[in-house]
Every structure is written in structure tokens, then in C-alpha cells.
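Progress report, Aim 2. The chain analyzed during this reporting quarter is listed below.
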Amino acid sequence: MARIVSLGSALQDIYLVDRDDLTPTRIGDSAIFGEMLVGSKVDIDKISYEVGGGGINSAITFARHGHEAVFLGNISHDPAGAAIVKTLDREGVDSSYINFLERKNTGTSVILLDSKSGERTILTCRGASEQFGNFSEKDLDLIQPDWLYITTLRGDLDTLERFMKYAKKLDINIMFNPGVKELEHPEQLLKLFEYVDILNVNKSEAGKLVPGVVLSELLYHLISYVEIAIITDGQMGGIASDGTETYRFGIYEDQKVKDATGAGDAFGSGFLAHFAAGKSFKDSLVFASANSTAVVSKLGANAGVLTGKEKLHLMPIQKI
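Predicted C-alpha cells for the chain:
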């Protein structure tokens, strides 16, 4: 197995779950979430305390797969931070490289979830996960990982570049799943792809980086920047190439979504968890899809994460 560092955010997710008062009201192509009057008191069916964030979700995926998982991120000395450390310890993730920030709260999300439709609205105070400039790339000297898995750093391209350059200096492989803030700077981001081995984006994100409308066009352009490019497209599946083989794939299972939080993290980290374990490119795509499906079938961004030991069934995937 490999040693993998997850660099990204850590959040406590507080779920407020109800089946009546949070029903979305459709207005054209959009919707207003919940039919609640201002000033009213609303009884909620269930409250659940979970942990999440791109760095946490991916680290848990790697640990359950049997890899040596290390989380590098910011939290604070508060109850939410304590819950995150407790979860990482339980999952077998190395939390010794966490930075504790003073005068900041641990990032927290309140998730309003309609249990009937699975629709949700997320209210987030990022707190300690708002900044990443305090991270030291020299930690990689001590950790000596095989892989560096990077999720969004909230648009901090300077820190992103520091870590990517240093990782390559140490011959560390990099998988990158950029976020909204990084994608606001496409030209700068494309220049950083020279350090990236595996890129994972969705169709909308790919369209902000390279020309193209259909998946095959977008993939054609992205694969010129990285060794492996993966583009997902929700219920339509996705497309991926390692420069030699190209696959068009559907979804693993068509099942009711209980909570879509963490679906993207589950796919990206699921792919790397399998791939870093020596599995084939194709099998890693299948596992990524299965992992994402398992996560959305349960409450919480990582409760349904698979171990890699499950017997998987066939899914739509075709070499093109």
C-alpha cells in the first residue's frame, strides 16, 4: 500500500433533517429551499453531527482502503476540532500534521436536508479552513509520501504552487481536484498542471479550463496537460483517459440519493485509493463510481466510504 497525504479542508457537518418543512419549491429552473416563514419556529425530525471537508473525506477513503493516510489541514481547539481529531484517530488517519489556529473556529457547515428528496442547502462558516498560507511544504520531507492528494485551497494558488513544486522535487505523485476558487484563475491553474499526474474535474469545471462542449472535446484538451484526466458528469457518468486508454462510463447504480454531500470527494479519492493499490485504470474508475454511490446512499460525507474489499458488480464502462 501507499502513503498518501490529503491536503485540504476540515469541517464539522451539522445535519438538520426533516421531511416536511424543508421541501423545495420550484421556480423555473431554480428552487427555494423550505417553506418557512421568517420568525417562525420549525420542528426538525433529526439532528446529526458528522465531519467532512475535502481533506477529511479523502483521508478517510485512503485509510479504509489500507493506505497510510495523513491529513494536513487547519482546525482549532474547540469541540468541532476535537470531533474531527477523534474521527481521524478512529479511522486510522495520521493527524499529527494538523495545524491548530488561534482566534479561529474550526470550519463548520449546517446542512438543511430534505429527507424525502435528498435536496439540501449548506450554510458554511469555513473558519480555520478559510486559509492555507500557514502550511509548510517542508512537512513533505518528514512524511515522505508516495502521493499528494490536493482538494480546494480556497483559491490560494501561491500555497498550491509551493506544494506542487516541492512535491515534484521529492518525486511525489500528485492528484488534484480543484475547487470553485481555483477555477476563477484558469490561466494560472493551467500552468500548474505541469506538476499534476491525475486531474479530476466535473464537466462544468472542465469547460472553465479548456475549449469544448462535449466530454470528448474537453478530455482531448485536458489530457495534453496531465498524464491522467477524469471528467465526471453527474448521472451521465463521465469520461477518462490515461493517454493510452480512454473510457466512457456510466453510474455504478441508479439508486435513491439520501445525501449528495461528499460525492465528488468519494469519486476522486476512491479512484486514487484503488489506483495507488496497484489496480488497473479501468478497475479504479469502477471503484470510484461505486464509492461515490455508496457515499450518497448514507447520511454524511464519508459514512458510506468503501474499503476496497467489497465484491463489485458490473457497470456501464466502455473503452473508446
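Residues 281-296 form the longest helix (16 residues). The domain at 3-10+53-106+128-319 is CATH 3.40.1190.20 (UDP-N-acetylmuramoyl-L-alanine:D-glutamate ligase). These observations will guide the mutagenesis work planned for the next reporting period.
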